[in-house]
């Protein structure tokens, strides 16, 4: 599959457990699930880009140098998504790794507070500490299920992960800087990517505004899943806005501004808008911000190949965006009838996903398996997607159903 | 530090974010914390053994080819310990990686049930699914603080981690095999390591018994932190007994037996016993099994170098073994006075550790920082260790205190 990839160390660990396994890695690749996955893999899998060369090549699909998706069959059942298989979606080329050479020296400019100034990451670490586990999901996750084939990466389910961030609460930083100015209904973050020359910066800069209320649970994070945030995921410093889609979680954050208006950067004013099919984005349309209730099945999936008849543990993930999960139902007949699934594993808070499992006995034949989540406010995952030009916010349970074969 | 280690990919990720960073890795190594750690590192750090060559060399101390410790300064604040920095302690040489080439074909022999038989991992996966997060801790963690210098690895705090396992509940397997036989007060697991030739197997085999009541929350696990269990950590199948020290969580498990008596293997009958100082282990002494309430500070620690005067976020971890954590206190004066710390981050259940943080302002000078945890039964972490010949079960808060310098 990825034998040409020079950085396949994680793959060898996954399958054979050690870096000494070079000699047997080829053999291991012919066994078990790996065989089924190889059969299902596209003929010409792209290699991992250099800045993400440490990812587990077997667990991801490389769409392009800036878009990498977790395979549906790779999610496992451990709640937290390992960083080495977490999706990547960068709006601009990844900055040079010199920016993570001296992490504590990173500078953040804070404005819209009573004592605006530049704060180093070293100082941020003295201001407070919080840890939050949350679903990080690209706005376009599920785009691949839109029959209209919107432009953009055709993600299925794998532009998402449940990960743990540590950093300082934004509210602690605001307090240390004298509190908010009056009349600032927006929190605006600006990424530190180097912008291409000769282009109006506003047309390319990554700058997003969210309602200032989102500050309550937002953190400026320096740690992801127990390690300093890798460059690929926005290190040394990333704005984390739990419950909001990926683009609102600004990587390499250089400016945090509390502002009277939304940013006029194109990625805010025209990009990431819920635009009617055939239309163009404009500031009057809803911005893609909060996530809503969604679930999908991770096993069994067609990528695993034909299933043996008998008992199966159907499992997947469910999350509610800003709300916790109340329950999940699973259908074995494409949505005609539903059974209550069991939530398993630790509950890591309302922004994290829950794992669900339903034990079932499946006879030979084809089966359409679907899942449908309900959040703690009673919102039920819908059957159909909300059509929009760019394929955002697909939460349709029907789109996320899987057809499996029991032999 | 580890420039001679051929498998330093994770280190480069940690510091510079990408596998393309070879050219700058040397430079990065001279900055910030890395510099302080380099100064504190032993002159001749051992390289990672091949089966664990994928570990983050910068985050661990290699004591020997079978004993690898997480650095106190590397724990971070994300609750779950990343697998690439989780400690390793193997009682026997690691099996050949051929045993993880076809994981689902692994066979487990189950006895002491009404329908004893051999079950494949493939079949175990159909029997049930549960996920548990727990502290995995070597029985000898903290041995390095015993002034008596017991034989064995002188672990300080890093022979422990908080990790997530997925697998089938042991009770589901027992139920599928007809239920327990009568008169079996012990659950006995046997590891699948290849034993050295010419030696009585009972003197070296890894076989441990725990009270059958521990079955209630035990699982037979195939996944660790979202990936198939690496060989270094007991893959393809490991018995997980939450709340019990590491040795009771049998790697490469080949036999699960419900037995009328404890195993007579030497590691059970004479090893891992609470033996009076100067004595020899025997079956009449308490076996090292359940963990009890313990905590320690991970930052600031001397390895981080001198601290700047001013505000500091003192943080660490606390766990209760079989019980959850009720609270943690921190002392800035070596235990004379205590302040209540704040628990932060997700609560992953009673077997996991909690993170605690105390914000404090430290003037110039030396400070002895200590932490003291209380579990939800009201058990308080003791000041002193329980002396024993082999240096097991050190929970002393005084031993785990750190002396830091504020400049």
From TrEMBL, chains A, B:
Pfam families from the entry?
Mo-co_dimer, Oxidored_molyb
Keywords of this entry: Metal-binding, Molybdenum, Oxidoreductase
Q: Would you say which domain of life the source belongs to?
A: Bacteria
The terms under GO molecular function for this entry are: heme binding; molybdenum ion binding; molybdopterin cofactor binding; sulfite oxidase activity
- List the PROSITE patterns: TAT
A GO BP term here is: sulfur compound metabolic process
User: Known Gene3D superfamilies for this protein?
Assistant: 2.60.40.650, Oxidoreductase, molybdopterin-binding domain
Where in the numbering of this chain does the Moybdenum cofactor oxidoreductase dimerisation domain appear? 287-403
Note down the stretches annotated as region Disordered: 372-395
Q: Which residues form the Oxidoreductase molybdopterin-binding domain?
A: 101-265
Keyword flag Mitochondrion:
no
Q: Which cofactor does it need?
A: Mo-molybdopterin
Protein's UniProt keywords contain Metal-binding? yes
Task: Give the protein's recorded name.
Answer: Sulfite dehydrogenase (Cytochrome) subunit SorA apoprotein
């Amino acid at each position: 599959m990825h034998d040409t990839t020079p950085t396949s160390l994680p793959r060898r660990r996954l399958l054979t457990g050690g870096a000494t396994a070079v000699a047997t890695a080829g053999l291991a690749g012919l066994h078990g699930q790996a065989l089924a996955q190889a059969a299902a893999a596209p003929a010409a899998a792209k290699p991992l880009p250099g800045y993400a060369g440490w990812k587990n090549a077997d667990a991801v699909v490389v769409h392009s140098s800036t878009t990498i998706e977790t395979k549906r069959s790779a999610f496992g059942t451990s709640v937290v998504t390992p960083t080495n298989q977490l999706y990547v979606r960068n709006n601009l080329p990844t900055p040079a790794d010199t920016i993570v050479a001296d992490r504590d020296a990173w500078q953040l400019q804070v404005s819209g507070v009573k004592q605006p100034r530049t704060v180093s990451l070293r100082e941020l670490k003295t201001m407070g500490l919080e840890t939050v586990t949350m679903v990080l999901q690209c706005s376009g996750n599920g785009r691949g299920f839109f029959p209209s084939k919107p432009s953009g990466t055709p993600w299925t389910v794998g532009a998402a992960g449940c990960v743990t961030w540590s950093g300082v609460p934004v509210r602690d930083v605001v307090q240390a800087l004298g509190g908010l100015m009056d009349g600032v209904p927006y929190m605006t973050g600006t990424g530190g990517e180097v912008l291409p020359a000769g282009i109006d910066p506003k047309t390319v800069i990554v700058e997003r505004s969210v309602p200032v209320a989102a500050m309550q649970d937002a953190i400026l994070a320096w740690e992801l899943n127990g390690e300093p945030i890798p460059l690929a995921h926005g290190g040394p410093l990333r704005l984390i806005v739990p419950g909001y889609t990926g683009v609102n979680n600004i990587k390499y954050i250089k400016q945090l501004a509390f502002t009277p208006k939304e940013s006029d950067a194109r990625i805010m004013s025209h990009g990431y808008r819920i635009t009617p099919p055939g239309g163009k984005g404009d500031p009057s349309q809803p911005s893609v911000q909060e996530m809503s209730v969604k679930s999908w099945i991770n096993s069994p999936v067609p990528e695993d190949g034909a299933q043996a008849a008998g008992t199966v543990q159907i499992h997947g993930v469910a999350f509610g965006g800003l709300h916790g999960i109340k329950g999940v139902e699973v259908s074995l007949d494409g949505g005609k009838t539903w059974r209550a699934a069991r939530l398993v594993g630790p509950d890591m808070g309302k922004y994290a996903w829950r794992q669900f499992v339903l034990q079932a006995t499946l006879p030979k034949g084809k089966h359409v398996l679907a899942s449908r989540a309900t959040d703690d406010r009673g919102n039920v995952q819908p059957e159909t997607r909300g059509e929009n030009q760019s394929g955002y916010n697909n939460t349709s349970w029907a789109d996320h159903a899987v057809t499996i074969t029991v032999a």
